[in-house]
Amino acid sequence: MASLSGQVALVTGASTGIGRHLVEGLAARGMAVAGVARTEDRLRTAMAEVAEATGARTLAVAADVTGRASVEAAVAEVVAELGQVDLLVNNAGLIDEFEVPVWEADADQWWEVVSSHIRGAQLTIRALVPWMVLRNRGRVVNIASGMSTRANPDYSAYSVAKTGLLRLTESLATALEGSDVRAFDVAPGVVDTPMTRSMHMWQGFTDWTPPERVVELVAAIAAGELDQWSGRFLRAGADDLEDLRAVPPEGAARQLRLRPHGDTDPLG
Ligand SMILES: NC(=O)c1ccc[n+]([C@@H]2O[C@H](COP(=O)([O-])OP(=O)(O)OC[C@H]3O[C@@H](n4cnc5c(N)ncnc54)[C@H](OP(=O)(O)O)[C@@H]3O)[C@@H](O)[C@H]2O)c1
């Protein structure tokens, strides 16, 4: 296990599911880890359990990632307590509650889903990346999805959000070119969590992606081993770490593009 000792991570959506696994895996590799989520009790319990299990320093900061003031206050607390953040993982987010076509979706819940992923990521990036740029050091991971590249009619808000997040990552990575600050999309596969348990499409599913695959990928990013993939989409459980380390991506590989209809497509 590569040591990330001395580094500081901030993981949103840290109280359960993938975020909780990431907190534990990064702490086990020596990082000091701050976790953000809205429900304070559950978050505090999770972060205390990880500190106990790993001996690492953890910090629970209850905050809603869609609130500008709450994100700015949370980041200030993390920096004051743990120091400058080396790794930001934008993992917090919601899924469409009603599993209906877009025209039937509740407008407020629909927008809440989009906001949890997009506004949440933009606000944490806005609060943290300027410091990363000043230090010329940092990694941002946005947690993506299979629905980043394929729409699902029952989860239109989530599909929109996760696709937008891909574009946000690419915009960020492009703006950071020439610096030692990078940004990545990591799709976690299908991990057994409260979110997937709530989704009709995964009922009866058993071939879950081990959360360790997500942790390994994010840890390799934090260690600077996958920098050539900045601005691109990686998938835990499908991508082999050795291959990723060895392969330099070319052109728009693993980026969001229109596929031409053939050689005569003027948009090709
Ligand atoms: N599980 C999978 O197989 C899978 C597949 C593809 C992508 N993903 C993505 O992976 C991420 C984690 O998924 P999961 O399955 O672990 O979800 P989950 O079990 O529902 O956990 C979501 C976490 O985000 C927090 N959260 C939600 N809204 C928030 C907000 N506005 N502000 C702060 N925290 C918030 C939740 O805590 P509070 O409710 O207390 O705030 C919780 O800690 C999500 O981005 C999801 O879209 C998951």
TrEMBL record:
**Top-rank lineage group of the source organism:** Bacteria
Which Pfam families would you find in this protein's record?
adh_short
Q: Which residues form a coiled coil?
A: none
Keyword list (alphabetical) reads: Oxidoreductase
Does the keyword Oxidoreductase feature in the UniProt annotation?
Answer: yes
Question: Does the record bear Signal in its keywords?
Answer: no
Q: Which InterPro entries match?
A: NAD(P)-bd_dom_sf (IPR036291), Sc_DH/Rdtase_CS (IPR020904), SDR_fam (IPR002347)
| Record GO terms (molecular function) | oxidoreductase activity, acting on the CH-OH group of donors, NAD or NADP as acceptor
Q: Which family does it belong to?
A: Belongs to the short-chain dehydrogenases/reductases (SDR) family.
Descriptive protein name: Short-chain dehydrogenase/reductase SDR
